[in-house]
Amino acid sequence: MRDALPHYTCACGRSYVPDAARWRCDCGGPLDLAAVPFTWRPRSTEEGLWRYADALAVPSLGLTLGEGLTPLIRASPDGDPGLLLKVEYASPTGSFKDRGAVTLATVARLLGAERVVCDSSGNAGTAMAAYAARAGLRAEIFVPEGTSAKKVQQIAGHGAEVTVVPGSREDTATAAAERVERTGAFYASHVYNPFFHDGVKTYALEIFERLGTAPDTLVLPAGNGTLVIGAYLGFAALRDAGLVDRVPRVVAVQAERCAPVAAAYTAGAREVTAVRPGRTAAEGIAIAAPVRGPRVLEIVRDTGGTVVTVSEDEIAAAHAALASRGLWVEPTGAVAYAAVSGLGTAPGEVVVAPLCGSGLKASL
Ligand SMILES: Cc1ncc(COP(=O)(O)O)c(C=O)c1O
Ligand SMILES: [Zn+2]
């Protein structure tokens, strides 16, 4: 089974056979996956996102908590029929991160790991803790100080060891990486490990299966960019298989107070310079130095999209508007919706935005 995994590749030209100790390239850069065969054959008999097993790089070990297959609903019953919301907070741990956690925990098992380490602003940590518990793996999760109490409680509740790291989100990442280097644990990083993106691809596959086509526009929150990259990879695979004619335009959304990718986009840059972040309610996307920021920029430009920012007031207004329609998201979960009204979409345009995290874990 382990041999069934594709190689890691890097933009510098190196490639590696996956093993539990490898989490980045010798050049220091993040790894991608070599191309894998893609077959469009949703299996209604499989649970969770193994429904799309034939389209994924990670082979199924049957590990699932019933993630994915989230509802795609109209933003309002009497509003624009083209504006659709994907209710990602209906996933088992309350966010889309379950999609990547299930493939990453499966890879950890395939590579023979017994312990996993992960750093997260909260939701990836809760997802990794849950899937590690389900997979019989010991988990250590590093979160920055200020992470919502409910997320910390959820991580600990799944039996993971939680370390709250003082300082910035980047300090948390450094602490986790040091732990990995010291203990040899598998680094179940949604930032570095490309098998996480493999699971997130199913966000796109589900939209395609529901609509029978690609929407015109995907509006996606961007911190480290796992949803941007995963959704892009899913639609790119569908395009390469001749099932859709193009990848939707990708609009990446950042919080005005922490917007390094938006700043690079506006400057026409290919690299992303770290910013000094202000405090934002959108804790899930408060990433001052996103490792895969250049990839997010590339995706936005390749698809004819853009990067936009939303203010704290806009996030609060979107949160309230969603709540008034029965949708209870965490502040980060309102970010994509907050950006939609400013996009100036054309009549008939089909736009999909995720409600990516649950309001039961964090609120304004
Ligand atoms: C609810 C929610 N939405 C969006 C994101 C952004 O994901 P990424 O940092 O991979 O861009 C996160 C990340 O933690 C999140 O928790
Ligand atoms: Zn490299």
From TrEMBL:
Main EC class the enzyme belongs to: lyase
A matching Pfam family: PALP
InterPro entries, alphabetized: Ser/Thr_Dehydratase (IPR050147), Ser/Thr_deHydtase_PyrdxlP-BS (IPR000634), TrpB-like_PALP (IPR001926), TrpB-like_PALP_sf (IPR036052)
Gene Ontology BP term (one): L-serine catabolic process
Entry EC number(s): 4.2.3.1
GO molecular function: L-serine ammonia-lyase activity; pyridoxal phosphate binding; threonine deaminase activity; threonine synthase activity
Keywords in alphabetical order: Lyase, Pyridoxal phosphate
Cofactor(s) recorded in Swiss-Prot or TrEMBL: pyridoxal 5'-phosphate
Domain Tryptophan synthase beta chain-like PALP positions: 64-357
Lineage top rank: taxon: Bacteria
Protein name: Threonine synthase
Organism: Sphaerisporangium rubeum
